[in-house]
Amino acid sequence: xxxxxxxxxxxxxxxxxxxxxxxxxxxxxxxxxxxxxxxxxxxxxxxxxxxxxxxxxxxxxxxxxxxxxxxxxxxxxxxxxxxxxxxxxxxxxxxxxxxxxxxxxxxxxxxxxxxxxxxxxxxxxxxxxxxxxxxxxxxxxxxxxxxxxxxxxxxxxxxxxxxxxxxxxxxxxxxxxxxxxxxxxxxxxxxxxxxxxxxxxxxxxxxxxxxxxxxxxxxxxxxxxxxxxxxxxxxxxxxxxxxxxxxxxxxxxxxxxxxxxxxxxxxxxxxxxxxxxxxxxxxxxxxxxxxxxxxxxxxxxxxxxxxxxxxxxxxxxxxxxxxxxxxxxxxxxxxxxxxxxxxxxxxxxxxxxxxxxxxxxxxxxxxxxxxxxxxxxxxxxxxxxx
Length: 386
Hints:
By secondary structure, the protein is an all-alpha fold. The chain has helices at 3-14, 16-41, 56-66, 97-105, 112-134, 141-150, 165-181, 184-197, 204-215, 221-250, 255-261, 270-279, 285-311, 315-334, 340-344, 359-381; strands spanning 70-72, 88-90. Helix 6 runs parallel beside helix 16 (359-381), helix 7 (165-181) packs parallel to helix 9 and helix 7 packs antiparallel against helix 14 (315-334). The longest helix has 30 residues, at 221-250.
């Protein structure tokens, strides 16, 4: 352990439990109060679970209740208004871990909707605690600002509703913290769980092994390669399990891809997608969120590259750089109809890089992010954000 790391541990222990745990709790509670306020401003019932049950939330609850289904369009309850040439419909276009957790919690007698909110809220708080550890868990002004920013990235409204975004964020933050601490086993577990939770978290299946191989200087190359392969294998095995779940319930390994094609999702030219989004102007929430994401990513990338050039690109730095690039590019590749702002919310652990920028710039990023979060959250409760 380095001298700097020993100093960090000493400061962490001297700060007491309140400094380690209270700030994430305060941010989580404050964020929930803010969501309730935005819901009321949009004319929704702030304290009704039904206010947040829109779009994919209904699909996750349906999967939790009845499992996966795939059938010819017109022959079942979940159809599409304009089915493509391959006219299959159903609820198989969403990953299984989140609805499985809802189903398991439902045995307590709580409603499926309440179980979904509980899973999301617990995962959100746990993710904030991990991000707080990445920030050093010391109550300083820059660390506090960065923790608040983590809760207000584009798409943050989905953290606390019946969506798996906070569960995926927990896995992403867990993998980064594991890489920082040199634990490839915990990194593998985080990657495997993330793969089963949300497609965008599957990026870590590639990024974590790459970071281990490139950035872990403390071990011989063959050991790094072996550990990187172990992490990749864990993610691959998780993907096989996901595919098996689809096959077991629908009879098709490609059930997920079939349903996603109904939304026009697939492989697209990212430049064409970005051009189309920005051409729509501020009338499109994706344009707001992409602009806010770039305002966040550009200074963070600048810090990462400058730090890497000065001190070397360690595993954590490689992982954060890959995460930011991937979360910007992959939704653009997936297509113009993808709700890209949900994936942007997974970039929250990269706030650690903003500790190294001037305070005025950090506050500017926070203000822009919070402003866009207000716009998107209001649009969600107005039924204008998918």
